[in-house]
């Protein structure tokens, strides 16, 4: 299904959702009624789209909704936490970008929520008392400041290995202090006492860098169709 032409990259889901619900209020009402009729549950995108198709019997009307804003938003939703009468949606319209909205299935009102509120809805599916307990233990891993950059462009999909290789290479070249943990990690990799990656002869960043330069020069002289292998 193609994205709606009226949805711009700069638009927000929370700002667009009310208009999406108004475009076909009758069918939208039926759709969200189906979402909540089975009680608390976690729904994935395929479940949402399946329920939407079942709620609209007319093929032409169904196509209009699927090709409209609501169809676009639901197809961009990764999962939904259903706690009747509420349906909380986790929407990822673009790689690395998330929005969370809460829809009341009774009156189709929409509220923007944050990730903490969304996780509360997911917790309520399993244990509502625990989810509402102010003394419940919560660990926010997002508070940890990871220095590794994040991929955010759609063009990066499928290129993760190249990205990791470039990132690790830049860390290895830029600073010995930053690269030392990587060298230590490679040294620690072993199986039954046998080194898997490097041995003590390459125990420093400088030694590993020099060895890699020599190895690259040697490999570059080989024909491109040479089959590589690793000797035991």
TrEMBL record:
InterPro entries hit by this protein: Sucrose_synthase_pln/cyn, SUS_EPBD, SUS_N
Keyword Magnesium: no
Keyword line: Glycosyltransferase, Transferase
Any single GO BP term: sucrose metabolic process
EC number: 2.4.1.13
GO molecular function: sucrose synthase activity
Domain Sucrose synthase EPBD: residue ranges: 159-226
Sucrose synthase N-terminal domain boundaries: 9-123
Residue ranges of coiled coil: none
TM ranges: none
Keyword Transferase in record: yes
Pfam families cross-referenced by the UniProt entry: SUS_EPBD (PF24862), SUS_N (PF24861)
Reactions that this protein is recorded to catalyse: an NDP-alpha-D-glucose + D-fructose = a ribonucleoside 5'-diphosphate + sucrose + H(+)
Family classification: Belongs to the glycosyltransferase 1 family. Plant sucrose synthase subfamily.
Protein name: sucrose synthase
Organism: Dipteronia dyeriana
